[in-house]
Amino acid sequence: MFALSELENDALIEIFNIGVGQAAASMSAIVNEAVRMSVPSVSFINRTEAARLLDGKSPEAENICGVSQHYEGAFATEAILMFPEDKSLEIVRLMVGESVPLKELTEMEQEAMCEIGNIILNSCVGTLANIFQRELHGSLPQYHIGTSDEILIASGSLPDTVVLMLHIDFLLEKHQIHGYVAFVLDVSALHDLKEQINLYIARAMGQA
Amino acid sequence: MTPTKTVLIVDDSRVSRLMARQYITGLHADWIVEEAGTGEESLLKARAVPPDLILMDVNMPGMGGIAAAELLRQQFPTIPISLLTANVQTATRERATQLGIGFMEKPITEARIAQLLATLEAV
């Protein structure tokens, strides 16, 4: 059974917290308003339970719009940004401003959401790569619409696979739009991540 | 008054090209903005009409932005090129430095575009 020590768990949260801080800054620059992000929470669960956990975060929204990217390198992970589907056009409008006509905006909604996901996820993952002093190569962003369950399955492995899920809630304060970012790692990736965390701890303690 | 310049925006995201275009023409209404959606297209456009500045995304389908920038740098050693990318990793910044090109992180904002254009305004 995979486990992290208390120090490793603490370092994991701290590292992702820094990444999330950068992501919040990027999102705030996109939508031009304050963005509040929660401390990352870590769970070892299967994908179905992970989806249930995320569904519980936004019970009012039937469908979710998700943008996912797969990363390889120091460790492998699926990174997913999720918003209620009915808010995506509003977010795109905040990004591009009032000058773009609604028809054009609607036509480019998916593409714009991909770009927003690309910026926010890379901001976070890029910060992690810099902290680990390693490189992470990302795929092109993929756009999904569905329930949390469908999006998690579409972006990764089988429903009963145990994964580590880090999830972060965020809130666009002025427009009261909730969303979340999730990182899903399967067991083989966890060992690589643990190794990177231990190298980070060793550097922090002046042992590397 | 700054003489008219041509800026080539290379990005697979239509919305990013639209935003960069908006900010450039907002700052310089008479400047010409050309667009390319891939690295390959950027090479064709630059050969057809060499621009005064190239803004290059990194993560694109087909030829990536780094490879395209490397070829453009060889073919047009004097044209300023800057990456304009969500990839904020140190490794990407270092590659930009090695190629002798600039680096600007996304999201695209008016202030960041203004900073990229500032070098041309002085010429």
Fold and architecture overview:
The complex is a heterodimer of chains A (208) and B (123). Chain A has seven helices and eight strands. With 208 residues, chain A is an alpha+beta fold. Chain A has one domain (6-204): CheC-like (Chemotaxis protein chec, 3-Layer(aba) Sandwich), CATH 3.40.1550.10. In chain A, strand 7 and strand 8 (177-186) form a beta hairpin. In chain A, helix 2 (47-55) runs antiparallel to helix 6. Chain B has 123 residues and is of the alpha/beta class. Chain B has one domain: Response regulator (Rossmann fold, 3-Layer(aba) Sandwich). Helices cover 46% and strands 19% of the residues of chain B. Chain B contains five helices and five strands. Chain B has helices at residues 14-27, 39-48, 65-75, 90-99, 110-121, and strands at 6-10, 32-36, 53-56, 81-85, 102-105. Chain B has a five-stranded parallel beta sheet, with helices on both faces. Chain B is globular, with a radius of gyration of 13 Å. Chain B starts with 5 loop residues before the first strand and ends with a helix.
Write a short abstract of this structure.
The complex is a heterodimer of chains A (208) and B (123). Chain A is α+β, with helices and mostly antiparallel strands and 208 residues long.
Superfamily (CATH H level) name of chain B: Response regulator
Question: In percent terms, what proportion of residues of chain A is strand?
Answer: 25-35%
Per CATH, the class of chain A reads Alpha Beta
Number of domains of chain B: 1
Low-confidence residue ranges of chain B: none
> Using CB atoms under 8 Å apart, which protein chain pair has the greatest interface?
A-B, 29 and 22 residues
Query: Given the helix and strand composition of chain A, which structural class is it?
Result: alpha+beta
State the name of the first-level CATH class of chain B: Alpha Beta
Number of DSSP helical runs of chain A = 7
Question: Under CATH, the topology of chain B is which?
Answer: Rossmann fold
In CATH, the topology of chain A is named Chemotaxis protein chec
Oligomeric form of this entry? heterodimer
Q: For the record, give the distance between the C-alpha atoms at the N and C termini of chain B, rounded to a whole number.
A: 11 Å
The whole-number mean of residue pLDDT values of chain B reads 94
Q: What shape does the CA trace of chain A take?
A: globular
CATH architecture of chain A: 3-Layer(aba) Sandwich
Strand elements of chain A, count: 8
Reported for the largest beta sheet of chain A, the result is:
8 strands, antiparallel
The radius of gyration of chain B is 13 Å
